[in-house]
Amino acid sequence: MSFKSRLNKTASILRTSEPTGDWGDTGDDITVGEVPCRIQASSGREYIDGKIRSDVTHLVFMESFVLLLGDKLMIEGVTYEIVPPIIDAGGAGHHLQVWVKEYA
Q1: In degrees rounded to 5, what are phi and psi of residue 4?
Q2: pLDDT band at 69, cuts 50/70/90?
Q3: How far apart, in Å, are the Cα atoms of 14 and each of 23, 24, 35, 98?
Q4: C-alpha pair distances (Å), 47 with each of 10, 31, 35, 82
Q5: What is the number of other CB atoms lying within 10 angstroms of the CB of residue 103?
Q6: Which domain holds residue 9?
Q7: CA 23, CA 43: separation in Å to the nearest integer?
Q8: Domains identified in the chain, total number
């Protein structure tokens, strides 16, 4: 079974637009791309390079896409905040491994 055949969901990449300048306007989330992905529940505590990542709720495997700090993922109507670092898991841009937490 190929890696791509395991990507059974679609992630919408949400990016916040620039605020209009009106008081209280923080910008809107706009979809800047959609990529095949696979999401799985993760333990409440992840360790990366010996550091605790306690807010992680899920791990997402996805095709490569340029993600920016502050981007969010929406998968099946649920929004997730990206928890850095983003890992080029397959090497040479094959796919990304992204830790996320459900967005409140």
Answers
A1: -60, -30
A2: confident
A3: 23, 20, 12, 14
A4: 27, 30, 27, 16
A5: 15
A6: 4-102
A7: 39
A8: 1
31, with CB counted inside 10 A (0-12, 13-18, 19+), is exposed
Give the tokens for residue 72.
């969010």
Bridge-partner residues for 78, per DSSP?
A: 75
- What is the per-residue pLDDT across 21-65, written as a single tens digit (0 to 9) for each? 676 666 788 899 999 999 999 866 656 677 665 578 899 999 999
Q: Report the C-alpha gap between 96 and 91 in whole angstroms.
A: 9
Tokens of 24: 């209280």
Q: How far apart are CA 71 and CA 29, in angstroms?
A: 9
Q: Strands, E, within 25-71: which ranges?
A: 29-41, 46-48, 51-53, 58-63
The CA angle 70-33-98, to the nearest 5 degrees, is 50
Determine the pLDDT at residue 39. Answer: 97
> The domain spanning residue 33 has which CATH number?
2.40.10
- Looking up tokens 């679609």 gives 10
